[in-house]
Give the backbone structure.
Amino acid sequence: MIVLGCDHGGLAIKNAIAADLKARGVEYKDVGTYTEESVDYPVYAKAVCDEITSGRAELGILCCGTGIGMSIAANKQRGIRAAVLSDAFSAEMTRRHNDANVLCLGGRVIDCKKAVELARIFLSTPFEGGRHAKRVAMLEK
């Protein structure tokens, strides 16, 4: 399962990603927020990360104005490897080489079409393992 979360700055792109997942029959959970009213992004970062670290979700997507705040908040959680990005190459490589489990996107940086494209790449790219597994394991120490 995929878990989605956002603050007010990432609502539009989170909703676009959710609509795409629903249309493709991909199971997901949306932990909010659901309106454009100003909220505190760390609350939603923690909610997404808790779903992943508990094993209830495999991967997460967090959206805020730039993706940066969500990335910082998510990476405070043990077991989370969150990456903020805005291009297709990085979306692929963060999964292949870093085994990132949370994608962070900025609603004031990219549009809904680009957000859906990056989410699809992130969610469909496997971790290569091999020499990269050693490096990822070092992050957990």
